[in-house]
Amino acid sequence: MLSRSCVHAIRAVVVLASLPPGAYCGTSAIADTTGAPRNYLGKLLLQLSRRGLVESQKGLGGGFRLAQSPDRIMLYDVVESIEDVARWKECAFGGRECSDETPCPLHTRWGAVRTAYLSLLSNTSVAELVVSDALANSALVPGLMPALPENDPVSPPIA
Prior knowledge:
With about 160 residues, the chain is mainly alpha-helical. About 45% of the residues lie in helices and about 5% in strands. The protein contains seven helices and two strands. The protein has helices at about 5-15, 25-35, 40-50, 75-80, 105-125, 125-130, 135; strands at about 55, 65. A two-stranded antiparallel ribbon has the order 1-2. A hairpin with a 5-residue loop joins strand 1 (about 55) and strand 2 (about 65).
């Protein structure tokens, strides 16, 4: 359910959450750590900045940092900055109007999945994704986060 863009944005925010307080990190260093294309990541960081999640500083020693504490930024905030989460309220068949009164064949099941997923996003903070102090202190080591596969948005493996 997460697009590649959302995964890149979440990874970037986790890197920023790993920085010492007040420190900035350049787009190139974030891109190297997350495996995101630098120019594309810059656009995502701009979107996050417009939503007040990150702030930037130009010049020597500049870059990006979180605009608020990582325990106050929920995954929902990051994902909503990149994608229109409201579209997940639509019918699973798309375009069709369905409701509890006139449900489509997937209405009940899709509703349960959607509710659980949105709950996960709304109740998980960025701070929870910063695994440990050891990881946080080494977050800017290139290659720390595995690269995404070339071909798909992130999807859970089918067992």
